[in-house]
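Quick one: structure for this chain?
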Amino acid sequence: MSYRGRFAPSPTGDLHIGSAATALIAWLRARQAGGELVLRVEDIDTPRVVAASEALQLDDLHWLGLDWDEGPDIGGEYGPYRQSERSFLYEDALAKLAAAGLTYLCDCSRSDIASIASAPHSGDEGPRYPGTCRRLGMQRRDWRRPPAVRLAVPDREVIVDDVFQGELRQNVFVSVGDFVLKRGDGIYAYQLAVVVDDLAMAITEVVRGADLLRSAPRQALLAELLGERPRRYAHAPLVVDGDGQRLQKRNPRHTLRGLRALGVAPEAVLAQLAQTLGLDGDHHFASITLRTLLTKANLTNVRGRVEIRLPS
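Got it. Here's what it folds into:
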Protein backbone atom coordinates (compact mmCIF):
# COMPACT_ATOMS: atom_id res chain seq x y z
CA MET A 1 0.00 0.00 0.00
CA SER A 2 1.33 3.46 -0.86
CA TYR A 3 1.94 5.96 1.92
CA ARG A 4 -1.14 7.63 3.42
CA GLY A 5 -0.60 9.99 6.31
CA ARG A 6 -2.88 12.32 8.17
CA PHE A 7 -2.94 15.47 10.25
CA ALA A 8 -5.89 15.57 12.60
CA PRO A 9 -6.35 18.82 14.56
CA SER A 10 -9.11 19.38 17.09
CA PRO A 11 -11.03 22.65 16.51
CA THR A 12 -10.76 23.84 20.09
CA GLY A 13 -8.87 27.09 19.43
CA ASP A 14 -5.96 28.49 17.45
CA LEU A 15 -3.17 26.19 16.24
CA HIS A 16 -0.06 26.63 18.35
CA ILE A 17 3.51 26.09 17.21
CA GLY A 18 3.57 22.55 18.57
CA SER A 19 0.62 21.56 16.37
CA ALA A 20 2.24 23.33 13.43
CA ALA A 21 5.42 21.29 14.02
CA THR A 22 3.40 18.07 13.91
CA ALA A 23 1.59 19.23 10.77
CA LEU A 24 4.91 20.03 9.12
CA ILE A 25 6.37 16.61 9.92
CA ALA A 26 3.20 14.89 8.70
CA TRP A 27 3.38 16.89 5.46
CA LEU A 28 7.08 16.14 4.95
CA ARG A 29 6.63 12.43 5.66
CA ALA A 30 3.86 12.21 3.07
CA ARG A 31 5.50 14.36 0.41
CA GLN A 32 8.97 12.80 0.71
CA ALA A 33 7.35 9.36 0.39
CA GLY A 34 5.41 10.47 -2.69
CA GLY A 35 2.22 9.61 -0.83
CA GLU A 36 -1.02 11.28 0.22
CA LEU A 37 -1.91 13.43 3.20
CA VAL A 38 -5.38 13.51 4.75
CA LEU A 39 -6.70 16.42 6.82
CA ARG A 40 -9.21 15.10 9.35
CA VAL A 41 -11.02 17.28 11.87
CA GLU A 42 -11.26 15.59 15.27
CA ASP A 43 -14.36 17.31 16.62
CA ILE A 44 -15.88 14.28 18.35
CA ASP A 45 -15.74 15.95 21.79
CA THR A 46 -18.40 18.49 20.86
CA PRO A 47 -18.51 20.42 24.19
CA ARG A 48 -14.88 21.51 23.61
CA VAL A 49 -15.34 22.63 19.99
CA VAL A 50 -14.91 26.36 19.40
CA ALA A 51 -17.10 27.91 16.70
CA ALA A 52 -15.21 28.93 13.53
CA SER A 53 -12.01 27.30 14.87
CA GLU A 54 -11.90 24.72 12.05
CA ALA A 55 -11.94 27.36 9.32
CA LEU A 56 -9.28 29.44 11.07
CA GLN A 57 -7.01 26.44 11.58
CA LEU A 58 -7.22 25.41 7.93
CA ASP A 59 -6.52 29.00 6.91
CA ASP A 60 -3.43 29.09 9.13
CA LEU A 61 -2.13 25.84 7.65
CA HIS A 62 -2.57 27.21 4.13
CA TRP A 63 -0.78 30.41 5.19
CA LEU A 64 2.16 28.26 6.26
CA GLY A 65 2.11 26.68 2.79
CA LEU A 66 0.85 23.24 3.74
CA ASP A 67 -1.66 21.40 1.59
CA TRP A 68 -3.46 18.07 1.69
CA ASP A 69 -5.04 15.67 -0.76
CA GLU A 70 -8.29 14.98 1.11
CA GLY A 71 -10.17 16.90 3.75
CA PRO A 72 -13.41 18.60 4.77
CA ASP A 73 -12.74 21.52 2.45
CA ILE A 74 -11.96 19.47 -0.68
CA GLY A 75 -13.63 16.11 -0.07
CA GLY A 76 -12.21 12.76 -1.09
CA GLU A 77 -12.86 9.05 -1.39
CA TYR A 78 -12.73 8.34 2.36
CA GLY A 79 -15.01 11.07 3.69
CA PRO A 80 -16.67 12.51 5.59
CA TYR A 81 -13.61 14.17 7.13
CA ARG A 82 -15.14 15.43 10.37
CA GLN A 83 -15.46 12.95 13.21
CA SER A 84 -18.81 14.43 14.17
CA GLU A 85 -20.14 13.08 10.87
CA ARG A 86 -18.70 9.55 11.28
CA SER A 87 -20.68 8.23 14.25
CA PHE A 88 -22.17 5.40 12.19
CA LEU A 89 -18.67 3.92 11.78
CA TYR A 90 -17.97 4.06 15.51
CA GLU A 91 -21.28 2.37 16.26
CA ASP A 92 -20.48 -0.40 13.77
CA ALA A 93 -17.13 -0.96 15.48
CA LEU A 94 -18.81 -1.14 18.90
CA ALA A 95 -21.29 -3.70 17.53
CA LYS A 96 -18.42 -5.81 16.17
CA LEU A 97 -16.59 -5.76 19.49
CA ALA A 98 -19.80 -6.51 21.39
CA ALA A 99 -20.53 -9.50 19.14
CA ALA A 100 -17.10 -10.86 20.07
CA GLY A 101 -17.87 -10.45 23.79
CA LEU A 102 -15.30 -7.68 24.19
CA THR A 103 -17.46 -4.87 25.61
CA TYR A 104 -19.49 -4.25 28.72
CA LEU A 105 -21.57 -1.50 30.30
CA CYS A 106 -20.17 0.38 33.29
CA ASP A 107 -21.78 2.98 35.54
CA CYS A 108 -18.79 3.50 37.83
CA SER A 109 -17.79 7.11 38.44
CA ARG A 110 -14.23 8.44 38.60
CA SER A 111 -14.55 8.75 42.37
CA ASP A 112 -15.72 5.12 42.57
CA ILE A 113 -12.62 3.98 40.71
CA ALA A 114 -10.25 6.22 42.67
CA SER A 115 -11.59 4.89 45.97
CA ILE A 116 -10.78 1.26 45.15
CA ALA A 117 -7.51 0.29 46.81
CA SER A 118 -6.60 -2.16 44.03
CA ALA A 119 -6.47 0.64 41.46
CA PRO A 120 -3.29 2.53 42.40
CA HIS A 121 -1.96 3.19 38.91
CA SER A 122 -2.79 6.54 37.35
CA GLY A 123 -2.56 7.34 33.66
CA ASP A 124 -4.01 9.79 31.16
CA GLU A 125 -7.51 8.48 31.89
CA GLY A 126 -7.07 8.56 35.66
CA PRO A 127 -6.63 5.54 37.97
CA ARG A 128 -6.51 2.10 36.43
CA TYR A 129 -10.01 0.66 36.08
CA PRO A 130 -10.20 -2.63 38.05
CA GLY A 131 -12.99 -4.23 35.99
CA THR A 132 -15.75 -3.89 38.57
CA CYS A 133 -18.58 -4.16 36.00
CA ARG A 134 -16.90 -6.60 33.61
CA ARG A 135 -18.73 -9.70 34.88
CA LEU A 136 -22.10 -8.03 34.16
CA GLY A 137 -21.39 -7.68 30.44
CA MET A 138 -23.89 -5.77 28.34
CA GLN A 139 -26.93 -6.67 30.44
CA ARG A 140 -29.28 -3.88 31.46
CA ARG A 141 -29.77 -3.06 35.12
CA ASP A 142 -30.69 -0.20 37.43
CA TRP A 143 -28.13 2.46 36.54
CA ARG A 144 -26.68 4.85 39.08
CA ARG A 145 -25.74 7.10 36.14
CA PRO A 146 -25.80 6.73 32.32
CA PRO A 147 -23.37 3.86 31.61
CA ALA A 148 -20.23 3.98 29.53
CA VAL A 149 -19.13 1.19 27.21
CA ARG A 150 -15.76 -0.30 28.15
CA LEU A 151 -13.42 -2.66 26.32
CA ALA A 152 -12.67 -5.96 28.06
CA VAL A 153 -8.90 -5.72 27.62
CA PRO A 154 -6.95 -8.99 27.22
CA ASP A 155 -4.06 -9.57 29.62
CA ARG A 156 -1.08 -9.51 27.25
CA GLU A 157 1.76 -7.28 26.17
CA VAL A 158 1.42 -4.95 23.20
CA ILE A 159 4.54 -3.84 21.31
CA VAL A 160 4.64 -0.60 19.31
CA ASP A 161 7.76 0.21 17.27
CA ASP A 162 7.55 3.97 16.88
CA VAL A 163 9.39 5.70 14.03
CA PHE A 164 10.73 8.48 16.26
CA GLN A 165 10.46 7.12 19.81
CA GLY A 166 11.61 3.53 19.35
CA GLU A 167 10.03 0.46 20.90
CA LEU A 168 7.28 0.79 23.47
CA ARG A 169 6.02 -2.27 25.37
CA GLN A 170 2.92 -2.15 27.50
CA ASN A 171 0.44 -4.57 29.02
CA VAL A 172 -2.65 -2.41 28.62
CA PHE A 173 -4.65 -4.56 31.03
CA VAL A 174 -2.09 -4.01 33.80
CA SER A 175 -1.31 -0.35 33.07
CA VAL A 176 -4.69 1.05 32.08
CA GLY A 177 -7.31 -1.62 32.58
CA ASP A 178 -10.59 -1.79 30.67
CA PHE A 179 -10.77 1.62 29.00
CA VAL A 180 -13.83 3.53 27.81
CA LEU A 181 -14.99 3.30 24.19
CA LYS A 182 -18.15 5.38 24.55
CA ARG A 183 -18.86 7.74 27.40
CA GLY A 184 -22.02 7.80 29.44
CA ASP A 185 -23.04 11.07 27.79
CA GLY A 186 -23.02 9.35 24.40
CA ILE A 187 -19.74 10.80 23.13
CA TYR A 188 -17.41 8.27 21.50
CA ALA A 189 -14.00 8.07 23.12
CA TYR A 190 -10.92 9.37 21.35
CA GLN A 191 -9.31 5.91 21.53
CA LEU A 192 -12.12 4.34 19.51
CA ALA A 193 -12.72 7.15 17.04
CA VAL A 194 -9.12 7.60 15.89
CA VAL A 195 -8.56 3.87 15.42
CA VAL A 196 -11.75 3.42 13.41
CA ASP A 197 -10.96 6.49 11.30
CA ASP A 198 -7.36 5.52 10.60
CA LEU A 199 -8.45 2.03 9.55
CA ALA A 200 -11.39 3.22 7.44
CA MET A 201 -9.31 5.93 5.74
CA ALA A 202 -6.51 3.45 4.91
CA ILE A 203 -3.96 5.52 6.82
CA THR A 204 -0.56 3.80 6.83
CA GLU A 205 1.28 6.05 9.30
CA VAL A 206 0.01 8.12 12.22
CA VAL A 207 2.12 11.24 12.85
CA ARG A 208 1.23 13.13 16.03
CA GLY A 209 2.78 14.63 19.16
CA ALA A 210 4.59 12.58 21.80
CA ASP A 211 1.96 13.57 24.37
CA LEU A 212 -0.17 10.85 22.76
CA LEU A 213 2.54 8.18 22.80
CA ARG A 214 1.00 6.32 25.74
CA SER A 215 -2.22 5.92 23.74
CA ALA A 216 -0.47 3.93 21.00
CA PRO A 217 -0.57 0.49 22.70
CA ARG A 218 -4.29 0.85 23.41
CA GLN A 219 -4.95 1.82 19.82
CA ALA A 220 -2.74 -0.91 18.37
CA LEU A 221 -4.58 -3.43 20.53
CA LEU A 222 -7.97 -2.08 19.50
CA ALA A 223 -7.03 -2.31 15.81
CA GLU A 224 -6.08 -5.96 16.30
CA LEU A 225 -9.35 -6.71 18.10
CA LEU A 226 -11.20 -5.16 15.15
CA GLY A 227 -9.41 -7.63 12.87
CA GLU A 228 -6.92 -5.18 11.34
CA ARG A 229 -3.17 -4.64 11.43
CA PRO A 230 -2.18 -1.67 13.61
CA ARG A 231 -0.92 1.37 11.76
CA ARG A 232 2.68 2.57 12.02
CA TYR A 233 3.19 5.34 14.58
CA ALA A 234 5.53 8.34 14.47
CA HIS A 235 5.29 10.47 17.61
CA ALA A 236 7.13 13.76 17.21
CA PRO A 237 8.86 15.34 20.24
CA LEU A 238 6.85 17.91 22.14
CA VAL A 239 7.57 21.58 21.61
CA VAL A 240 7.48 23.69 24.77
CA ASP A 241 8.29 27.30 25.56
CA GLY A 242 11.67 28.61 26.69
CA ASP A 243 10.85 27.80 30.32
CA GLY A 244 9.90 24.22 29.52
CA GLN A 245 6.18 24.86 29.91
CA ARG A 246 3.40 23.73 27.59
CA LEU A 247 2.50 26.21 24.87
CA GLN A 248 -0.42 28.53 25.58
CA LYS A 249 -3.00 29.48 22.97
CA ARG A 250 -3.36 32.82 24.77
CA ASN A 251 0.24 33.74 23.97
CA PRO A 252 0.34 35.31 20.46
CA ARG A 253 3.91 34.08 19.92
CA HIS A 254 2.80 30.52 20.53
CA THR A 255 0.11 30.39 17.81
CA LEU A 256 0.19 30.72 14.05
CA ARG A 257 -2.62 33.27 14.12
CA GLY A 258 -0.81 35.34 16.71
CA LEU A 259 2.44 35.27 14.74
CA ARG A 260 0.54 36.34 11.63
CA ALA A 261 -0.96 39.27 13.52
CA LEU A 262 2.53 40.27 14.64
CA GLY A 263 3.64 40.42 11.00
CA VAL A 264 5.89 37.35 11.09
CA ALA A 265 6.36 35.81 7.62
CA PRO A 266 5.52 32.12 7.07
CA GLU A 267 9.08 31.51 5.84
CA ALA A 268 10.39 32.71 9.22
CA VAL A 269 8.01 30.37 11.04
CA LEU A 270 9.15 27.46 8.88
CA ALA A 271 12.77 28.29 9.65
CA GLN A 272 12.03 28.35 13.38
CA LEU A 273 10.22 25.01 13.15
CA ALA A 274 13.04 23.47 11.13
CA GLN A 275 15.63 24.60 13.67
CA THR A 276 13.52 23.56 16.66
CA LEU A 277 12.95 20.07 15.25
CA GLY A 278 16.48 19.66 13.92
CA LEU A 279 15.31 19.40 10.32
CA ASP A 280 17.82 21.93 9.02
CA GLY A 281 20.94 20.10 10.20
CA ASP A 282 23.70 22.58 11.04
CA HIS A 283 22.05 25.36 9.05
CA HIS A 284 20.24 28.11 10.91
CA PHE A 285 18.10 29.74 8.28
CA ALA A 286 16.42 33.05 9.06
CA SER A 287 13.73 32.06 6.57
CA ILE A 288 13.11 29.11 4.31
CA THR A 289 10.48 28.13 1.79
CA LEU A 290 8.49 24.94 2.10
CA ARG A 291 9.83 23.75 -1.26
CA THR A 292 13.44 24.16 -0.09
CA LEU A 293 12.67 22.50 3.22
CA LEU A 294 11.16 19.56 1.39
CA THR A 295 14.49 18.87 -0.33
CA LYS A 296 16.73 19.68 2.67
CA ALA A 297 14.80 18.29 5.64
CA ASN A 298 16.35 15.23 7.23
CA LEU A 299 13.59 13.51 9.16
CA THR A 300 16.01 11.03 10.71
CA ASN A 301 17.09 13.92 12.97
CA VAL A 302 13.66 13.92 14.63
CA ARG A 303 14.57 11.64 17.48
CA GLY A 304 14.22 11.29 21.22
CA ARG A 305 11.52 11.76 23.79
CA VAL A 306 12.81 15.04 25.14
CA GLU A 307 10.75 18.18 24.99
CA ILE A 308 12.10 20.72 22.51
CA ARG A 309 12.18 24.29 23.80
CA LEU A 310 11.40 27.26 21.63
CA PRO A 311 14.05 29.96 21.67
CA SER A 312 13.15 32.83 24.01
